[in-house]
């Protein structure tokens, strides 16, 4: 059943015409989808997962993504295509989304899950295969259809991904049009037409797209920009912290919004922590190299596409770093303060980690919040510590949705097998980031819920029970 069937009349213009046709097909597919049957819905979700998890497909799509976009590396994208998909499938198969999803006789409540309608899924160039599958799995889990708006840079990869998803749907006798893609060439006008026409827009990537979706009049979920700062305090296991930061920083050449962009180290362990990061593969830039990073990573105030998300040897060669830097895993650049006039405190999408020295933990929290004011507020932070009080203080005093403790941020922030965050490739940042969700995007965002309410024994306290404390303190 379709949540909303709209008689769409194409407006003037090719973008509107193309989207109107896709919407008709999507609604027809929803009408044919056996989305009243949880077992059949779960088969459809599993089919989408297998389309990218299948080893030869995971490798193919990883290779296509790097070839199309020039961003990241194949090995990391294979891991992303498989690990994220496997984790998301685990989460989704454990959930009820159609029919009766919850029943509580004591409260007189029965909840029914129902589709939200046709989902418009806007996806980024950094994940042109994994993100479309991740969103499609969640959309179909809710009984919906999805139309994907890919990044123009990753169109070839996303188009092939959609072909593979549709082939798996056909194999298990589900309508192929449950998953569609905007036709090439994708333009801002066409993406906007999809946002305007769908029942729910879910937007990852360009903050321009997020803002346009949130002001479109369509119900929209957008996610904020990353710029993760991580604190190393004076109780941390320094080598463990360095290894985790390194593994996370270099994954897919720092394309993830969850990649560490800055590390804030307490003065008491500053030199030792830097040594640990060097042992893990970091190269500490001198003043001359720092100047080259600043000149090479940004061009006219914008990140230089010739160096972002590139292998370290390519990055070092293009901006003129030393041979030692070229053979390292990533570069570290010390800076004395974050601020809007300090590019190194911004998101870098490159194998560059900014390093700050903090006097004490209070100063580390101050620096961390200053970084987030530049970019990344609402998204997430990390801390390496053996002091639970420090972790709790950071959570209490920082305006972010996620605070990860002693974890490789990229591998934990979007869900992990050793934390309870839902697996996703889209992380909401709450109102701090101008987002409508303050959690990881998950299946609950793709269903409407009908509440069947019956009466229970009256639950009405006395006036004294509710007002007594106030009366005794302030009078009536």
Give the key terms.
alpha/beta, disordered N terminus, seven-stranded parallel beta sheet, Aldehyde Dehydrogenase, Chain A, domain 1, 18% strand, single chain, globular, Aldehyde Dehydrogenase, Chain A, domain 2, 2 domains, five-stranded parallel beta sheet, 476 residues
Task: Please characterize this protein's 3D structure.
By secondary structure, the protein is α/β, with parallel strands linked by helices. The protein folds into two domains: 222 residues, 3-Layer(aba) Sandwich (Aldehyde Dehydrogenase, Chain A, domain 1); 194 residues, 3-Layer(aba) Sandwich (Aldehyde Dehydrogenase, Chain A, domain 2). 43% of the residues lie in helices and 18% in strands. The strands form four sheets. It has a seven-stranded parallel β-sheet with strand order 10-13-14-9-8-15-16, sandwiched between helices. A five-stranded parallel β-sheet has the order 5-4-3-6-7, with helices on both faces. It has a three-stranded antiparallel β-sheet with strand order 1-2-17, with no helix packed on it. Helix 3 packs across helix 4. The termini are far apart. The N terminus is likely disordered.
């Amino acid at each position: 059943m379709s949540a909303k069937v709209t008689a769409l009349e194409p407006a003037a213009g090719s973008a509107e015409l193309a989207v109107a046709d896709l919407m008709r097909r999507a609604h027809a597919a929803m009408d044919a989808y056996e989305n009243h049957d949880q077992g059949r819905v779960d088969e459809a979700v599993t089919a989408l997962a297998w389309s990218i998890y299948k080893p030869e497909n995971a490798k193919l799509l990883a290779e296509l993504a790097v070839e199309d976009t020039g961003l990241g590396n194949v090995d990391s994208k294979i891991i992303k295509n498989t690990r994220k998909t496997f984790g998301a499938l685990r989460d989704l198969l454990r959930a009820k989304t159609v029919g009766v999803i919850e029943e509580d006789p004591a409260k007189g409540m029965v909840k029914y899950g129902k589709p939200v309608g046709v989902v418009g899924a806007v996806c980024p160039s950094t994940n042109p295969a994994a993100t479309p599958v991740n969103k499609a799995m969640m959309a179909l889990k809710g009984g919906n259809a999805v139309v994907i708006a890919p990044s123009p840079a990753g169109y070839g990869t996303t188009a092939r991904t959609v072909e593979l998803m549709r082939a798996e749907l056909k194999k298990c006798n589900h309508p192929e049009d449950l998953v569609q893609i905007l036709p090439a060439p994708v333009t801002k006008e066409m993406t906007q037409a999809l946002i305007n026409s769908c029942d729910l827009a879910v937007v990852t990537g360009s903050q321009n797209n997020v803002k346009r979706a949130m002001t479109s009049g369509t119900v929209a979920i957008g996610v904020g920009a990353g710029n993760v700062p991580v604190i190393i305090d004076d109780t941390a296991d320094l080598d463990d912290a360095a290894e985790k930061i390194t593994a996370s920083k270099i994954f897919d050449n720092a394309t993830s919004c969850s990649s560490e962009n800055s590390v804030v180290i307490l003065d008491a362990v500053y030199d030792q922590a830097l040594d640990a990061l060097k042992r893990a593969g970091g190269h500490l830039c001198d003043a001359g190299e720092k100047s080259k990073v600043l000149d090479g990573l940004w061009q006219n105030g914008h990140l230089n596409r010739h160096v972002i998300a590139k292998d370290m040897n390519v990055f070092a060669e293009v901006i003129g770093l030393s041979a030692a830097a070229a053979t390292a895993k990533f570069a570290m650049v010390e800076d004395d303060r974050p601020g809007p006039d300090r590019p190194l405190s911004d998101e870098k999408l490159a194998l560059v980690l900014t390093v700050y020295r903090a006097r004490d933990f209070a100063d580390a929290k101050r620096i961390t919040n200053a970084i987030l004011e530049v970019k990344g507020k609402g998204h997430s932070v990390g801390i390496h510590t053996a002091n639970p009080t420090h972790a709790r203080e950071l959570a209490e005093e920082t305006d972010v949705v996620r605070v990860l403790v002693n974890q490789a941020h990229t591998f934990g922030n979007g869900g992990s097998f050793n934390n309870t965050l839902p697996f996703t490739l889209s992380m909401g940042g709450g109102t701090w980031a101008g987002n409508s969700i303050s959690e990881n995007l998950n299946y609950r965002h793709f269903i409407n819920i009908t509440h069947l309410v019956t009466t229970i024994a009256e639950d009405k306290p006395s006036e004294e029970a509710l007002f007594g404390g106030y009366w005794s303190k302030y009078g009536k």
